[in-house]
Amino acid sequence: MTARILSIGTALPETRVEQSALRDLFAAQPGFDRKGQRLVGAAFDAAAIDTRHVVLPQLAGGTGGGLGVRDGDTLLMPSTGARNAEYRRTAPALFAEASRAAIEGSGRTPDAITHVVTVSCTGMFAPGPDYHLVRDLGLPTSAERYHLGFIGCAAAIPALRLAARIVAADPDAVVLVACAELCSLHWQTSSHPDQIVAASVFADGAAAAVVASGDSSHPGLDLDDFATHVTDEGEKDMAWTVGDSGFEMTLTPEVPRIIGREIAGIAADVLGDLNDVDAWAVHPGGRSILDRVESALALDAAALAPSREVLRAHGNMSSATLLFILRDLLADVAHPDGERIAALAFGPGLTVEAARLTLRRP
């Protein structure tokens, strides 16, 4: 029996900040010359993002929060330990909120969950988010738990693949997949172009899905097939490493170019005949990545509208972002039963993760 996403829940931090405010704050940092300020303005304005949510109220000019990141208009550079402590303090609640919403929408009760798969690349601690979900949501203490860490923006697809494999092996399994990323904790006040681009797009958010055997009584997204492809280049162009002052992102201009050059061949290889695709869920790593995918695959401008809308409203929430897009496709009644959806996401390596899904309505 095919595994189905029965429901998707999402959660966002309370603090919502305008892209223009973040742009002005970043450009005002000491040590930025006019060239650096121009780069900041160009990157933030070209990102096609209106607002983002963050767990750090100080980034929006507010007060509070456990981590001090701002002294007036100057952004501070806390240690990695301090940033990770804030992750440990704030991430469990977002994991729980998204997961609770997903369970409530699935028609299942918490005690039905047999497996928990958590995903994050922006913090780490043990016992980790998987343990906290069992404790905080009252899930069975016998639930099997798995954590996928440091896979980056592409990680939601491997997590769904794992859930589908579990359900294929045990048709009675009910798998909770939960992704939460707090990218704002790793803000770098560097004028290096890679750090400017990263600062212009990344945001915080969480999303969760309940995956189980599908039946005719419950709508959802059937998980039909998956594929992974590692490109011939890009290993040094997208990377995520632990530094002394937070995690450090490498994100060069080559990333969208590599995707643009290779995505047509990859998509045909892993998804089959693209004429059979009715809708697209493409991870919005940034506006330029969506532009390259749209051009390379000769897609209609409307095809990536769901991806662009999530980017506009929330920014790039790393692994959680793709589930936001799938949530919107599932909720939109304009998408009929049987519609075939292609999902694509991109991670360090440079790795392309793909999935084929079918929308089911009772």
List keywords for this structure.
single chain, 362 residues, alpha+beta, two-stranded antiparallel ribbon, 36% helix, globular
Can you characterise this structure?
By secondary structure, the protein is α+β, with helices and mostly antiparallel strands. 36% of the residues lie in helices and 27% in strands. It has helices at 19-27, 34-46, 80-106, 129-137, 156-169, 193-201, 254-271, 287-296, 305-314, 321-331; strands spanning 3-11, 15-18, 51-54, 70-71, 74-75, 115-120, 144-149, 174-182, 204-213, 220-230, 238-243, 246-251, 279-282, 340-347, 351-360. The strands form 4 sheets. Strands 7-6-8-9-1-10-15-14-13 form a 9-stranded mixed β-sheet, with helices on both faces. The protein has a two-stranded antiparallel ribbon with strand order 2-3. Strands 4-5 form a two-stranded antiparallel ribbon. The longest helix has 27 residues, at 80-106.
State the gist of this model:
The chain is an alpha+beta fold. 36% of the residues lie in helices and 27% in strands. It has ten helices and 15 strands.
